[in-house]
Amino acid sequence: MSLLCRKEHQMLATLIPLFDDNMYVCAYSVFARKENHFLNPNYEGGARYDGAGTVHELEVVSSMGVGTLSGGKEVFVPINQFSIFAEISLQCTVPAGKVVLLMDNSIVPTEQYVKRVKELKSQGYKLAIRKLQIADFEPYKEIISQCDYILLNHTKIEISKAKVYFGKVYPNVKLVAVNVDSQEEYEELKKDGGYDLYEGGFFRMPVKESETEVSPLKVNYIELLNVINAQDFDLQEAADVIGKDPALVISLLEMVNRMALNSDITSIRHAAAMLGQKELKRWINTAVTKELCADKPSEITRLAMIRAKFAEGLAGPFEMGMAAQELFIMGLFSAIDIMLDKPMEEALNMVQVSKNIRDALIDNKGDFAPLLNFIRRYEDADWTEVSRLMVIDDINMDEVYEAYLNALKWYRDLFPQK
């Protein structure tokens, strides 16, 4: 049975970036919650033993496929005192070396746990541990010595001392500062030095120049060439292929904007129809010839595309089914300011989008704003607020989770599997 069909999980999950001193995204951590936090405020999220030894967060990793993360980044998956004994290798469909099993202090340094940790290490998994106090470092030495990362609460650690200690005792363990709440905190921690990676609520979109370039997807261009060079090709089919690539969509809408002022574009199909077969074919052949040799998509492309498909998938639960294509464009262009390195209003003036999209992206108002706000809270793993919004709007948790997994799977399936 497909993992995507297992709807009994009642879970929410998202990917949170881990980044370095240059704000380059180096890895992701799966943040999950298996209950509605608003209805169950005392529930503690994280990997959970359900009697079958299932690590539910691996469902997200399998749906996503780490091969689609730009640069083949690692993914941190939380495990606890129960799920550490699960048959992880049977649940994980991605290479073990790309998975970092993130342990917590429920896993104690007894012989049983130390043996299991060493087994997982021998199977090729990377390991990390969190929620340890300074007093735990010595008792946990057999477990820490097997780890690739240790996550530290930077507010409770004197990093200058920690750097010396770990450099001497565990020279191969990378230090990760968690709960970095502001840009100012991040800058201070950078200045002090010592941390290899950071996780912070202020940072959810990559801003490093090399990460924000809007690169094409080669497979889409080849597919598009085949479509438009067929005799009497289907405009809708071409539009659907264009919709898989932000670089193509931006270029298309810029062209339509120059041709048709004051015309609200509500879908990519609409834009393609306005251009017509002859002009669309001429533009595609030019764009494909120019871009076919470009590298794999950047991190910002990946995030924008997943957000776009997630927005489209939420159209039903938010009772905006008729606007699904428009919501896709809204999600895609929600990072266009970063893509083009311009203020949002100026960036949107380069393309032709509807008033609903402009209102949501520029002023956070209008019909689409609540859905965009929901997505942003979801991406932040703000489960309390996400759960509150689901209760208020009578939105089913399964539908939200399925829409997110489908977005990951859709993006994964854009690439030929090696």
UniProtKB/TrEMBL annotation:
Domain HDOD: 214-399
Signal peptide range in chain numbering: none
UniProt xrefs under Gene3D superfamilies: Hypothetical protein af1432 (1.10.3210.10)
Pfam families linked to this entry: HDOD
Protein name per the record: HDOD domain-containing protein
Source organism: Butyrivibrio proteoclasticus (strain ATCC 51982 / DSM 14932 / B316)
